[in-house]
Amino acid sequence: MKKVLLLVTALMFTVAIGSINTAYAVVVNNPYTSESGNFKINFPGTPEVANEKVPTEVGDIQMYTFMYEKSITEAYMVAYSDYPSALVEASNPKDLLQGGKDGALSSLAIDDLDEEKDISINGYPGLYFKGKSTSNTYHVVYEVYMVENRLYQVAILRDGTYPDNDNVKDFIKTFRLLKDPKSIGKSNHSTNTADKGGTGKGYSSSDGKFKIDFPGAPKEASETVPTDVGDIEMTTFMYEKSLSEAYMVAYSDYPSAMVEASNTNDLLDGGKNGALSSLGIENLEDERDITLKGNKGKAFKGNNGTYFVVYEIYLVKNRLYQIAILKEGSYPTVTDVKSFIGSFQLTK
What we know:
Layout: H1 2-19, E1 32-34, E2 39-41, E3 48-56, E4 59-71, E5 74-82, H2 85-89, H3 93-107, E6 112-121, E7 124-132, E8 138-147, E9 150-159, H4 165-170, E10 176-177, E11 192-193, E12 203-205, E13 210-212, E14 219-227, E15 230-242, E16 245-253, H5 256-260, H6 264-279, E17 283-292, E18 295-303, E19 307-316, E20 319-328, H7 334-340, E21 345-346
Antiparallel strand pairs: 1-2, 2-10, 3-4, 4-5, 5-9, 6-7, 7-8, 8-9, 11-12, 12-13, 13-21, 14-15, 15-16, 16-20, 17-18, 18-19, 19-20
């Protein structure tokens, strides 16, 4: 259910732009707030947060999603993305909203539209619609808004029947903007840069405070990871060179109190053991202590006969960095390791 709704949001952006070229089940009582998204809403449970780059006819657009899966048959979602300002200024907002609606309906095979009407939020145009499919059992209630150059999507997807009116009222109708809409559309998220050719060379993350030479343009994503010391946000940057080879940088911030009360080597060993366990790596062939600008780290490589991994991890204050190449069948070449992992640098 969740994957279906995520696919819808991605397709909405593609269709909307193309049309103008002709988590965890813990009940929360207070509104969910996203400062960077500039919204608040009452989710029925704690949503999972993610972001990805969506390819469109005007270039890649970053999409941020907040998803709560109430059950395998019912999902609640907010998503937003910022369109290029020049594109929005040259377009009619209603065309973008209609394109978004058509993309959502098409991707879910919704061919029976029961209701559609114009709406607004803080004076900005929006569109409300609900429909169902005659070829599957999906029912959807949706609202989309165009606020400056930011497209918001708020939806409930349910299998079998429409969501109850109370659920629509308690979720969709609680969506609010936090600040003056004139100030949004200027992303507070990490500013990432790479060479103009999109090869990933010189890729940098301002929030991640690093730069590295990816062999291609990576995809950025984030997720909340439950741990013994609470939920920790992990941000990953991934480039799949092929079906059998992937390049990754990831970072997460540990609670400062935990880091201060712990031995750095123990935290690094924990990171190493977690990486090896998650990949099923049983044969550790090399391990050594390393440093980066005086910060302790570990380098290791291993395999399980199928997957071969070369890894470096560093603990910089309370932030754990992971840099890795995973390859099927054999270890990555020394040149690839040097060009990618060897190029990792910290920035201010």
